[in-house]
Amino acid sequence: MEYSHSDTELINQPIGYWSWAASDAVVTRIRAALQEEFGLTQPQWWVLHQVVPSAQGKTRKEVAAVLRGYLDIGAEIEPEIDTTVRRGWLIEDSQGRLRGTVDGSQLYDEAARLQDRLWAERHAGISDEEYLTTLKVLQRMIHNVGGTAWHH
C-alpha cells in the first residue's frame, strides 16, 4: 500500500481527522453492505446481534442500555427495535422480552457472515499486533483528553 504522506509528514497529521476518516469509511462500508444485501440498517443489525443469540431474550431496556453508546444511536434505538418487530425478525413476549423469530435468526446468521467478510476486508494486510496497538493508542488518547469510550 502506498501511504498519502511520508512518515515525517504523517507524524504531524491530526489524529482527529484520521480517526474520523477511518470511522467514516468503515461505517459507510458496513451500512451500505447491510442495506444492499439485506435491506437492514446497522442499528437494526445491532438490535438483532443483542437479541438473537440470547437464550433468554432481552428487554427493550437491556438492549437500549448496551446500544446507547454505539456511534450516533443515543436514545433513538426504540424505532429500530420497533422495525425489527414489525418486519418479523423479533417478537416481544408478554413479559416484554424480545426474541428472534425463525426469519430473524436466519437473517442474523446471514448478516453475521457478511460482518465476518467485512472484518476480513478491513483487516487485510494488518496484523493482530498492529490492530491491537492501534486500539490501545486510540484508547490512551481518549483517556488523555478526559474522554470515555467502551464497546460491548
In short:
The chain has 152 residues and is mainly α. 62% of the residues lie in helices and 6% in strands. The protein has a domain at 39-120: Arc Repressor Mutant, subunit A.
General description of the model:
The protein has 152 residues and is mainly alpha-helical. It has a domain at 39-120: Arc Repressor Mutant, subunit A (Orthogonal Bundle), CATH 1.10.10.10. 62% of the residues lie in helices and 6% in strands. Strands 1-3-2 form a three-stranded antiparallel β-sheet. Strand 2 (90-92) and strand 3 form a beta hairpin. The longest helix is centred in the N-terminal third of the chain and has 24 residues, at 15-38. The model has no long low-confidence stretch (mean pLDDT 91).
Strand content: 5-15%
For the biggest sheet, the summary is: 3 strands, antiparallel
Q: In angstroms, what is the radius of gyration?
A: 18 Å
So, the CATH homologous superfamily of the domain at 39-120? Answer: Winged helix-like DNA-binding domain superfamily/Winged helix DNA-binding domain
Order of helices and strands: HHHEHHEEHH
CATH class of the domain at 39-120: Mainly Alpha
Terminal CA distance: 32 Å
Helical content band: 55-70%
Q: Please name the CATH topology of the domain at 39-120.
A: Arc Repressor Mutant, subunit A
Oligomeric description of these chains:
single chain
